[in-house]
Amino acid sequence: MTDPIEARPTPWQTVLLLCGKCARKMDGGYGPEKKQTLRSALRSELKAQGHGRSVRIIETRCMGLCPKKAVTALNASAPTRLLTIPRGTPVVEALAQVMAPRG
Ligand code: FES
Question: What single string gives the DSSP state of each residue in the chain?
Protein backbone atom coordinates (compact mmCIF):
# COMPACT_ATOMS: atom_id res chain seq x y z
CA MET A 1 0.00 0.00 0.00
CA THR A 2 1.33 3.47 -0.85
CA ASP A 3 1.49 6.32 1.59
CA PRO A 4 -1.39 8.81 1.47
CA ILE A 5 -0.95 12.13 -0.31
CA GLU A 6 -0.36 14.86 2.21
CA ALA A 7 -1.06 18.59 2.06
CA ARG A 8 0.63 21.28 4.06
CA PRO A 9 -0.17 24.97 4.37
CA THR A 10 2.33 27.51 3.05
CA PRO A 11 2.85 31.18 3.89
CA TRP A 12 2.97 32.02 0.16
CA GLN A 13 0.47 34.33 -1.48
CA THR A 14 2.43 34.80 -4.68
CA VAL A 15 4.71 32.45 -6.57
CA LEU A 16 7.14 33.93 -9.07
CA LEU A 17 8.95 31.77 -11.58
CA LEU A 18 12.27 32.96 -12.95
CA CYS A 19 14.21 31.18 -15.66
CA GLY A 20 17.39 29.91 -14.06
CA LYS A 21 19.00 29.28 -17.42
CA CYS A 22 18.54 32.94 -18.48
CA ALA A 23 20.11 33.93 -15.15
CA ARG A 24 23.07 31.60 -15.69
CA LYS A 25 23.73 33.09 -19.12
CA MET A 26 24.31 36.48 -17.48
CA ASP A 27 26.76 37.45 -14.81
CA GLY A 28 24.49 39.38 -12.45
CA GLY A 29 23.03 42.37 -14.28
CA TYR A 30 20.57 43.68 -11.69
CA GLY A 31 20.57 45.67 -8.48
CA PRO A 32 22.27 48.97 -7.73
CA GLU A 33 25.65 47.90 -9.05
CA LYS A 34 24.31 45.44 -11.63
CA LYS A 35 26.11 42.63 -9.88
CA GLN A 36 23.14 40.77 -8.43
CA THR A 37 21.07 38.13 -10.10
CA LEU A 38 17.46 39.11 -10.73
CA ARG A 39 16.41 36.61 -8.09
CA SER A 40 18.57 38.11 -5.33
CA ALA A 41 17.73 41.68 -6.35
CA LEU A 42 13.99 40.86 -6.21
CA ARG A 43 14.44 39.07 -2.90
CA SER A 44 16.13 42.13 -1.32
CA GLU A 45 13.44 44.43 -2.67
CA LEU A 46 10.67 42.14 -1.42
CA LYS A 47 12.24 42.17 2.00
CA ALA A 48 12.56 45.97 1.92
CA GLN A 49 8.87 46.22 1.00
CA GLY A 50 7.88 43.91 3.87
CA HIS A 51 6.86 40.87 1.81
CA GLY A 52 9.20 38.47 3.56
CA ARG A 53 7.89 34.95 3.18
CA SER A 54 4.62 35.65 1.41
CA VAL A 55 6.33 35.63 -1.98
CA ARG A 56 8.10 32.50 -3.16
CA ILE A 57 10.57 32.75 -6.02
CA ILE A 58 11.29 29.52 -7.85
CA GLU A 59 13.96 29.15 -10.51
CA THR A 60 12.87 27.03 -13.43
CA ARG A 61 14.45 25.53 -16.47
CA CYS A 62 14.16 27.20 -19.85
CA MET A 63 10.66 28.53 -20.52
CA GLY A 64 11.23 28.56 -24.28
CA LEU A 65 11.52 32.28 -24.87
CA CYS A 66 15.28 32.67 -24.41
CA PRO A 67 15.61 36.46 -24.59
CA LYS A 68 19.03 38.03 -25.12
CA LYS A 69 20.36 39.88 -22.06
CA ALA A 70 17.11 39.46 -20.15
CA VAL A 71 15.46 36.99 -17.79
CA THR A 72 12.12 35.34 -18.49
CA ALA A 73 9.74 35.67 -15.55
CA LEU A 74 6.21 34.60 -14.78
CA ASN A 75 3.78 35.26 -11.96
CA ALA A 76 2.20 31.85 -11.36
CA SER A 77 -1.16 33.57 -10.76
CA ALA A 78 -1.03 34.97 -14.31
CA PRO A 79 0.32 32.14 -16.45
CA THR A 80 -0.82 33.77 -19.70
CA ARG A 81 1.66 36.63 -19.32
CA LEU A 82 5.32 35.78 -19.76
CA LEU A 83 7.66 38.70 -19.08
CA THR A 84 11.22 39.32 -20.18
CA ILE A 85 13.09 41.55 -17.78
CA PRO A 86 16.05 43.21 -19.50
CA ARG A 87 19.42 43.38 -17.85
CA GLY A 88 19.73 46.58 -15.80
CA THR A 89 15.97 47.06 -15.24
CA PRO A 90 15.54 48.92 -11.93
CA VAL A 91 14.47 46.30 -9.44
CA VAL A 92 11.47 48.31 -8.19
CA GLU A 93 10.11 48.38 -11.73
CA ALA A 94 10.83 44.69 -12.30
CA LEU A 95 9.05 43.78 -9.09
CA ALA A 96 6.03 45.97 -9.88
CA GLN A 97 5.66 44.30 -13.30
CA VAL A 98 6.05 40.75 -12.13
CA MET A 99 3.78 41.22 -9.11
CA ALA A 100 0.94 42.73 -11.14
CA PRO A 101 -1.26 39.73 -11.92
CA ARG A 102 -2.58 41.43 -15.06
CA GLY A 103 -2.21 44.65 -16.97
S1 FES B 1 16.94 30.24 -21.36
FE2 FES B 1 15.49 31.36 -20.23
S3 FES B 1 13.70 31.12 -21.40
FE4 FES B 1 15.13 29.86 -22.41
Answer: -PPPP-----S-SEEEEEEHHHHHHSS--BTTTT-B-HHHHHHHHHHHTT-TTTEEEEEES--S---TTEEEEEETT-TT-EEEEETT--HHHHHHHHH-S--
- pLDDT tens-digit readout, 46-65: 999 999 899 999 999 999 99
* 73 Cβ below 6 A of ligand 1: no
Work out which ligand 1 atom sits closest to the CA atom of 71: 2
Distance 29 CA to ligand 1 centre (A): 16
Instruction: Look at ligand 1, atom 2, and give the residue with the nearest C-alpha.
Output: 22
Average pLDDT for the chain: 95
